[in-house]
């Protein structure tokens, strides 16, 4: 096992776990054999596209285990109670029990769905995140948030359920379509805006090499962005304080995704528009200069991310924000950037201020 090629960052949670960066899919089996001798059965959950590309590679290291592959159709709509029920039925048919290990092989949807399934199947079984998209590698696979959607909103039903490990193979990024890359870039730029000015400047300075998919630059991008997420969730695992900052752009973005029924807009596109809306709101409250708002907007647009949306009703979007999980006592809780490199939790945004921010991003 070529450990020298790996980088490991530990998440200092109640149940600590490692994030392996630069590991290979083929080596996961050897890691499991060394550290978890009681595992006999493994369920791998993936979607058809990812399984077609990576299942054989992952399977190479898992031949000493009883293996089952469960396929879930691609798409955000699969994060549902109906799909959870179907996964449960399939897992039981495969003879899964409390000692079964579940592996999420895929992007954010697969990670969220599989993690939540693992958290409730037989009152909780072990699972490992194997993220194959940029978004999953830098954000959704780290931190133990798992969930499915509800008609009232995104990720309404969920839990904090940390994995045994996050196993990141950078080579899986090589097959991504650019719209999937955009999803991850939106989250990475979000990390920079809330916590790391130097990372923001890295995106500005290296935009051409990022677009050219320079492997060295991409490795640095994933590592630095992941480190921001690890640091924050290590300090606040259950989102009682600083972890809330990671939701920059998400209150606005989730409202858009819900309104559009998760069709016609990706998560990253929603977050990008949401970041700009939050930046306009921050400017109105004196937290950002107009130049800083434009700087953030320009960086998102450089990578092809949208910063406006057409033909939406601000009042309807405001109503969707009522279901946001951060809200307390009927008050909308929003994350606002404070310049670039910092952010705050705001409990004092009026509906009129939020509507004005929406109007800034509706073309």
From TrEMBL:
One Pfam family linked to the record: DHQS_C
Lineage, top ranks: Bacteria, Bacillati, Bacillota, Clostridia, Eubacteriales
Known function: Catalyzes the conversion of 3-deoxy-D-arabino-heptulosonate 7-phosphate (DAHP) to dehydroquinate (DHQ).
Species name: Desulfosporosinus orientis (strain ATCC 19365 / DSM 765 / NCIMB 8382 / VKM B-1628 / Singapore I) (Desulfotomaculum orientis)
Organism domain of life: Bacteria
Biological pathway: Metabolic intermediate biosynthesis; chorismate biosynthesis; chorismate from D-erythrose 4-phosphate and phosphoenolpyruvate: step 2/7
Keyword flag Nucleotide-binding: yes
InterPro entries: Dehydroquinate_synthase (IPR050071), DHQ_synth_AroB (IPR016037), DHQ_synth_fam (IPR030963), DHQS/DOIS_N (IPR030960), DHQS_C (IPR056179)
The protein's name in its UniProt record: 3-dehydroquinate synthase
Protein family (similarity comment): Belongs to the sugar phosphate cyclases superfamily. Dehydroquinate synthase family.
EC number(s) from the headed UniProt entry: 4.2.3.4
């Amino acid at each position: 096992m070529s450990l020298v090629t790996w980088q490991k960052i530990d998440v200092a949670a109640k149940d600590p776990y490692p994030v392996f960066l630069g590991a290979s899919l083929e080596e996961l089996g050897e890691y499991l054999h060394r550290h978890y001798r009681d595992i006999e059965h493994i369920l791998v959950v993936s979607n058809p596209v990812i399984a077609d590309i990576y299942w054989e590679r992952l399977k190479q290291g898992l031949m000493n285990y009883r293996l089952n592959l469960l396929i879930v159709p691609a798409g955000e709509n699969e994060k549902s109670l109906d799909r959870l029920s179907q996964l449960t039925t399939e897992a039981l048919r495969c003879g899964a029990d409390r000692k079964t290990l579940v592996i999420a092989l895929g992007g954010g949807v697969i990670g969220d769905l599989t993690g939540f399934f693992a958290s409730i199947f037989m009152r909780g079984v072990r699972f490992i995140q194997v993220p194959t998209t940029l978004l999953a590698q830098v954000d959704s696979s780290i931190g133990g948030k798992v969930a499915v959607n509800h008609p009232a909103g995104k990720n309404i039903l969920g839990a904090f359920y940390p994995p045994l490990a996050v196993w990141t193979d950078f080579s899986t990024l090589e097959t991504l379509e650019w719209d999937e890359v955009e999803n991850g870039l939106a989250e990475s730029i979000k990390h920079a805006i809330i916590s790391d000015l130097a990372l923001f400047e890295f995106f500005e300075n290296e935009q051409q090499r990022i677009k050219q998919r320079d492997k060295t630059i991409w490795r640095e991008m994933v590592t630095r962005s992941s480190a921001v997420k690890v640091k924050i969730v290590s300090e606040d695992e259950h989102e009682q304080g600083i972890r809330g900052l990671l939701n920059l752009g998400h209150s606005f973005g989730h409202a858009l995704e819900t309104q559009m029924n998760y069709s016609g807009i990706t998560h990253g596109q929603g977050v990008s528009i949401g970041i700009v809306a939050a930046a306009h709101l921050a400017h109105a409250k004196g937290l950002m200069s107009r130049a800083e708002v434009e700087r953030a907007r320009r960086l998102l647009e450089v990578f092809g991310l949208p910063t406006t949306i057409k033909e939406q009703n601000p009042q309807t979007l405001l109503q969707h924000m009522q279901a946001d999980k951060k809200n307390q006592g009927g008050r909308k809780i929003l994350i606002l950037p404070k310049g670039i490199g910092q952010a705050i939790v705001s409990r004092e945004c009026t509906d009129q201020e939020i509507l004005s921010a929406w109007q800034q991003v509706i073309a």
